Amino acid sequence: MDPATAARRRPRWVRPAVALLLAATAALYLIDVAISGWGNSFYAMAVQAGTESWKAWFFGSLDPGNIVTVDKPPFSLWVMGLSGRIFGFDSWSMLVPDALAGVASVGLLYLAVRRLSGPGAGLLAGAALALTPVAALMFRFNNPDAFLVLLMVAGAYFLVRALEKAGTGWLLLAGVAIGFGFLDKMLQAFLVLPAFVLAYLVAAPTSLGRRIWQLFAAAGAVLVSAGWWVAAVAAWPASDRPYISGSTDNSVLQLAFGYNGLGRIFGQGHGGGGPRGGARPELPAGLDFPAGRGGGFGGFGGQTGLTRLFTQQFGGEASWLLPAALIGLVAGLWFTRRAPRTDRTRAALLLWGGWTVVTVVVLSYMSGIIHPYYTVALVPGIAATVGVTVRELWRGRAQLVPRVVLALMLAASVVWGFILLGRAPDWQPWLRYTALALGALGVAVLLFGLERLRRIAPAVGALGLVAALLGTATSTIATAATAHTGGQPSSSPSNGRGMRGFGGATQSNVEIDRLLQATENKWAAAQTGAMQSAGLALGSGKPVMAIGGFSGSDPAPTLKQFQQYVGAGEVHYFVAGGRGFGGSRGTSGQITTWVERNFPSATVGGMTVYDLTKGK
């Protein structure tokens, strides 16, 4: 049945149900979206710079003077920066685009799943995505992950459209979406490509030769859509653009395949001018590596292995429906093993199940920097796999085996949710027992009573969904109602604020803010590392130079460059006490030493401030 015919035959309840799903998602993500303030102040600082300088906007610079970039490509900053230019820069204008990306992701996931598996599967997939805690976390936050998910889901939607009639144009659009995903978070966007290639190579309704050349053409689309900005940065004279933070040679490609690529997978250092090759960096006061975790600035994610995504750190983020998805995927592939090559259900399983499996393996075995919120990229795969398999198994519920698999999926979801809720025993303890009781009833009816109770089969299905989704839904609502700040936010109800001091702006210092607001220089102040200088820039509304970029270890500016800026009267103050992983070593240490020796200091708001317009 072609999509147009299917649309005409679609039940009347579908459109109202979709409208309700999108409206509820919008309410969940948009209501009180500014509760987190600047969220990750590191990215907020760059968004602020982009609203003041188009050059900073294009490169993703940390300040409008374009000294150094953030350590990611700028796609998400482009969107948030444009919003800030249109509506004025504040927390609301910065975070609303991320929330809207979440609503769009849910809508696109519904459309993609529906085209291969029907509206019921699409609605369940969309709801599962919306009601996963890490999704509510990232779609109400200013990290790049919100737009990464949107672009990957868009790529999957275009791929599904290509699968229908082997459409080259749709396949090229899928490549463009993933290419722009690279411009959002580099190689993480490519995690879905194995599933895309497998699904199309197996199921597209055309000859093998045509499938192969179409995939090569799509690879070209990925390269062009990702490479144009990389080429523009490479062609731009290095002396006239910011330093590419996190790279060792001021190169986007080195950043992509080093710090943000192989370094993430194999734990090869933390990029920039600081320690690499597994060396243990110097952390700011108040931070330390948790015991038993690796060096190389990795280790935030605990030990590697297939159990990582179920640990205390990761489990509550995205794994609520992961056991059910894996059970359903195995069963679905077994049931469709003899289906025709172009079978739509198997194509859907290859696409969404492949997305899930590849992402699970990579996240489980990454030995470099990994944060629990990275699992948001896994959620669409889990949600769609659950939607597709539940729908197909429910259609075959008259037979015993599909009912048994459904019961296993429900039991796995409820038991795992019970365990996850038990990790925060003081938070709404009644929920876990309610979900367990409802789940036990649903499993019992599926196994022993469904044939006798056929008239209430819809009610049984609804009961199972409530039991399976109760834990993740309530945790998601709690996440949305909690303020999150810093570089490692968590969606757990018991730990909503993230790691202290890591990427979160310090509390506003009124005296420092007033001092900087009175300046007219190109840079009101300079400070080592963006972790604290972001607070100065956001609090005062004035340009602040983050010496050494995020970690303070990038060689930008050099001592000679900084001396030239000071000699030209372009930097008014140097604020001591900046946080960085470079410590007293490298360029930032040289600049600090030079300032301390040559300029008078004063205490302002409890901080030591050097006036760079006056010599000793």
TrEMBL record:
<keyword id="KW-1003">Cell membrane</keyword>
<feature type="transmembrane region" description="Helical">
    <location>
        <begin position="347"/>
        <end position="367"/>
    </location>
</feature>
<feature type="domain" description="Putative mannosyltransferase YkcA/B-like C-terminal">
    <location>
        <begin position="518"/>
        <end position="598"/>
    </location>
</feature>
<dbReference type="InterPro" id="IPR056785">
    <property type="entry name" value="YkcA/B-like_C"/>
</dbReference>
<dbReference type="Pfam" id="PF13231">
    <property type="entry name" value="PMT_2"/>
</dbReference>
<keyword id="KW-1133">Transmembrane helix</keyword>
<dbReference type="GO" id="GO:0005886">
    <property type="term" value="C:plasma membrane"/>
</dbReference>
<dbReference type="InterPro" id="IPR038731">
    <property type="entry name" value="RgtA/B/C-like"/>
</dbReference>
<keyword id="KW-0812">Transmembrane</keyword>
<feature type="transmembrane region" description="Helical">
    <location>
        <begin position="167"/>
        <end position="183"/>
    </location>
</feature>
<keyword id="KW-0472">Membrane</keyword>
<protein>
    <submittedName>
        <fullName>4-amino-4-deoxy-L-arabinose transferase</fullName>
    </submittedName>
</protein>
<dbReference type="GO" id="GO:0010041">
    <property type="term" value="P:response to iron(III) ion"/>
</dbReference>
<feature type="transmembrane region" description="Helical">
    <location>
        <begin position="215"/>
        <end position="236"/>
    </location>
</feature>
<feature type="transmembrane region" description="Helical">
    <location>
        <begin position="189"/>
        <end position="208"/>
    </location>
</feature>
<feature type="domain" description="Glycosyltransferase RgtA/B/C/D-like">
    <location>
        <begin position="71"/>
        <end position="225"/>
    </location>
</feature>
<feature type="transmembrane region" description="Helical">
    <location>
        <begin position="145"/>
        <end position="160"/>
    </location>
</feature>
<feature type="transmembrane region" description="Helical">
    <location>
        <begin position="318"/>
        <end position="335"/>
    </location>
</feature>
<feature type="transmembrane region" description="Helical">
    <location>
        <begin position="430"/>
        <end position="450"/>
    </location>
</feature>
<dbReference type="GO" id="GO:0009103">
    <property type="term" value="P:lipopolysaccharide biosynthetic process"/>
</dbReference>
<keyword id="KW-0808">Transferase</keyword>
<dbReference type="Pfam" id="PF24878">
    <property type="entry name" value="YkcB_C"/>
</dbReference>
<feature type="transmembrane region" description="Helical">
    <location>
        <begin position="120"/>
        <end position="139"/>
    </location>
</feature>
<feature type="transmembrane region" description="Helical">
    <location>
        <begin position="92"/>
        <end position="113"/>
    </location>
</feature>
<feature type="transmembrane region" description="Helical">
    <location>
        <begin position="373"/>
        <end position="393"/>
    </location>
</feature>
<dbReference type="InterPro" id="IPR050297">
    <property type="entry name" value="LipidA_mod_glycosyltrf_83"/>
</dbReference>
<feature type="region of interest" description="Disordered">
    <location>
        <begin position="481"/>
        <end position="503"/>
    </location>
</feature>
<dbReference type="GO" id="GO:0016763">
    <property type="term" value="F:pentosyltransferase activity"/>
</dbReference>
<feature type="transmembrane region" description="Helical">
    <location>
        <begin position="405"/>
        <end position="424"/>
    </location>
</feature>
<feature type="transmembrane region" description="Helical">
    <location>
        <begin position="462"/>
        <end position="483"/>
    </location>
</feature>
<keyword id="KW-0328">Glycosyltransferase</keyword>
